[in-house]
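Let's study today's protein:

:::
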Amino acid sequence: MPMGEGEMDRFHAAAGQAALMLVESLMLVLVERRMIDADELIGAVETVIDTKRQLAEYGHEPEVARLAATLLTTLANSIAAAGPKAAARD
Protein backbone atom coordinates (compact mmCIF):
# COMPACT_ATOMS: atom_id res chain seq x y z
CA MET A 1 0.00 0.00 0.00
CA PRO A 2 1.54 3.35 -1.02
CA MET A 3 2.29 5.91 1.66
CA GLY A 4 0.63 9.31 1.66
CA GLU A 5 2.62 12.53 1.82
CA GLY A 6 2.27 12.85 5.60
CA GLU A 7 3.33 9.26 6.10
CA MET A 8 6.40 9.79 3.88
CA ASP A 9 7.32 12.90 5.87
CA ARG A 10 7.14 10.91 9.11
CA PHE A 11 9.12 8.07 7.54
CA HIS A 12 11.88 10.43 6.41
CA ALA A 13 11.92 12.18 9.79
CA ALA A 14 12.20 8.81 11.55
CA ALA A 15 14.98 7.67 9.20
CA GLY A 16 16.93 10.87 9.75
CA GLN A 17 16.48 10.67 13.51
CA ALA A 18 17.60 7.05 13.61
CA ALA A 19 20.66 7.81 11.46
CA LEU A 20 21.69 10.78 13.60
CA MET A 21 21.28 8.81 16.83
CA LEU A 22 23.29 5.90 15.45
CA VAL A 23 26.13 8.15 14.28
CA GLU A 24 26.19 9.96 17.64
CA SER A 25 26.30 6.64 19.49
CA LEU A 26 29.16 5.37 17.34
CA MET A 27 31.10 8.62 17.76
CA LEU A 28 30.70 8.46 21.53
CA VAL A 29 31.91 4.85 21.61
CA LEU A 30 34.98 5.81 19.57
CA VAL A 31 35.76 8.66 21.98
CA GLU A 32 35.13 6.56 25.09
CA ARG A 33 37.42 3.80 23.80
CA ARG A 34 40.02 6.43 22.92
CA MET A 35 40.08 5.32 19.31
CA ILE A 36 39.68 8.90 18.12
CA ASP A 37 40.15 12.20 19.89
CA ALA A 38 36.94 14.08 20.71
CA ASP A 39 38.44 17.28 19.31
CA GLU A 40 38.97 15.60 15.92
CA LEU A 41 35.34 14.53 15.76
CA ILE A 42 34.13 17.92 16.90
CA GLY A 43 36.27 19.54 14.19
CA ALA A 44 34.72 17.28 11.57
CA VAL A 45 31.20 18.08 12.75
CA GLU A 46 32.00 21.81 12.82
CA THR A 47 33.15 21.58 9.20
CA VAL A 48 29.76 20.14 8.27
CA ILE A 49 28.01 22.86 10.30
CA ASP A 50 29.94 25.53 8.38
CA THR A 51 28.99 23.88 5.09
CA LYS A 52 25.31 23.75 6.02
CA ARG A 53 25.38 27.43 7.03
CA GLN A 54 26.99 28.35 3.70
CA LEU A 55 24.34 26.36 1.84
CA ALA A 56 21.65 28.27 3.75
CA GLU A 57 23.30 31.57 2.79
CA TYR A 58 23.40 30.49 -0.87
CA GLY A 59 19.69 29.70 -0.76
CA HIS A 60 20.02 25.90 -1.02
CA GLU A 61 17.10 24.74 1.12
CA PRO A 62 17.91 27.38 3.76
CA GLU A 63 15.36 26.24 6.34
CA VAL A 64 16.51 22.62 6.16
CA ALA A 65 20.18 23.65 6.21
CA ARG A 66 19.65 25.81 9.32
CA LEU A 67 17.81 23.00 11.11
CA ALA A 68 20.57 20.56 10.18
CA ALA A 69 23.20 22.98 11.51
CA THR A 70 21.29 23.20 14.79
CA LEU A 71 21.12 19.40 15.11
CA LEU A 72 24.80 19.09 14.27
CA THR A 73 25.66 21.70 16.92
CA THR A 74 23.84 19.56 19.48
CA LEU A 75 25.84 16.56 18.28
CA ALA A 76 29.14 18.44 18.64
CA ASN A 77 28.14 19.54 22.15
CA SER A 78 27.32 15.95 23.07
CA ILE A 79 30.75 14.78 21.92
CA ALA A 80 32.43 17.63 23.79
CA ALA A 81 30.57 16.71 26.97
CA ALA A 82 31.57 13.05 26.64
CA GLY A 83 35.29 13.77 26.18
CA PRO A 84 36.17 14.70 29.77
CA LYS A 85 33.99 11.90 31.19
CA ALA A 86 35.88 9.32 29.16
CA ALA A 87 39.22 10.73 30.31
CA ALA A 88 38.11 10.82 33.96
CA ARG A 89 37.29 7.09 33.97
CA ASP A 90 40.87 6.04 33.26
